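Lab meeting, item 3. Inverse folding demo.
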């Protein structure tokens, strides 16, 4: 028995009186699956099943930094503040303000400590919880030797001013509890700033559907020498540097005559730039007119001019190649 999906793809169905299939790639909307069985005498019968598929909408977790469970061993109520700027108040018990704040700390979340806690020497003096991976910065009075607990931090080499000059240390933390020791000197109490770490989401291509029914593999790390097509041995050369290591699709060169307005579709999980390398010997089809000609070219078996278009996360649809040269190839790079 064999199965075929109206939205692309086919394979072998397993069973006799009953059957099962696996490895079916579903496209958004109706997918009409036809299962055909043929006996030894050549008699054939088919069964049709329609499967409706909707791409799930996944709400990503919050990426806003939150500081909770703030506790000082002194019992004082330290305050969490947003948007550090030059002129922000440093302490809950002094009128000192920040100045000469480095740009990477401007608009950060910060904790107003108590200057009267400056002599505390506990190994666990201040603790709080962060909900996402972040960098914790401690501004420590430049006139004094740092306590042992601060040796696990990196000296940034930068300074800011409160009432005195403060050297800035930093340490990366995963989401969870942060514990800091006591200040341990007669200068000014340290102050604390927290900056969330950039969230890097890898580009993923999914739900790839081809009107010809062929399976186009998605590959990572494009390089000179990478294979262009699933049905030819042609390889890429003269790849521009901005496309090296990009994700790419191995298309089928035998699909080059297709003229469908919606020939190839896929989903991207984040905003990305989609590049189409199109045979330089032929005029571009109308659907490619919405792309920008980069002015660059690469080589497969022929010279290919490169077009690009920015897409938000979601569905991308490309038309057919429409000529007898080489089928276009596709690359995607996260924005």
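The presenter then showed the designed sequence:
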């Amino acid at each position: 028995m064999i199965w075929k999906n109206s939205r692309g793809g086919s394979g072998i169905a397993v069973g006799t009186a009953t059957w099962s299939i696996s490895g079916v790639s579903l496209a958004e909307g109706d997918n009409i699956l036809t299962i055909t069985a043929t006996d030894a005498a050549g008699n054939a019968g088919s069964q049709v099943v329609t499967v409706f598929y909707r791409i799930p909408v996944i709400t990503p977790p919050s990426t806003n930094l939150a500081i909770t469970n703030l506790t000082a061993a002194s019992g004082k109520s330290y305050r969490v503040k947003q948007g550090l700027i030059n002129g922000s108040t440093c302490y809950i018990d002094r009128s000192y303000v920040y100045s000469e704040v480095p740009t990477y700390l401007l608009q950060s979340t910060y904790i107003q400590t108590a200057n009267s806690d400056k002599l505390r020497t506990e190994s666990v003096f201040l603790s709080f919880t962060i909900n996402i991976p972040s960098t914790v910065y401690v501004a420590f009075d430049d006139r004094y030797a740092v306590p042992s607990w601060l040796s696990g931090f990196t000296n940034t080499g930068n300074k800011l001013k409160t009432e005195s000059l403060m050297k800035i240390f930093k340490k990366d933390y995963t989401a969870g509890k942060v514990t800091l020791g006591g200040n341990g000197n007669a200068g000014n109490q340290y102050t604390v700033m927290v900056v969330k770490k950039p969230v890097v989401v890898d580009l993923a291509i999914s739900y790839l559907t081809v009107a010809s029914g062929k399976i186009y593999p998605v590959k990572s790390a494009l390089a000179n020498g990478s294979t262009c097509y699933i049905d030819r041995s042609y390889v890429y050369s003269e790849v521009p540097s901005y496309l090296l290591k990009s994700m790419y699709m191995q298309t089928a060169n035998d699909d080059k005559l297709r003229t469908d307005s919606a020939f190839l579709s896929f989903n991207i999980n984040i905003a990305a730039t989609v590049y189409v390398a199109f045979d330089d010997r032929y005029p571009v089809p109308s659907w490619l007119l919405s792309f920008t000609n980069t002015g660059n070219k690469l080589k497969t078996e022929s010279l290919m001019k490169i077009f690009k278009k920015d897409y938000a996360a979601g569905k991308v649809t490309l038309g057919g190649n429409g000529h007898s040269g080489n089928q276009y190839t596709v690359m995607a790079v996260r924005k």
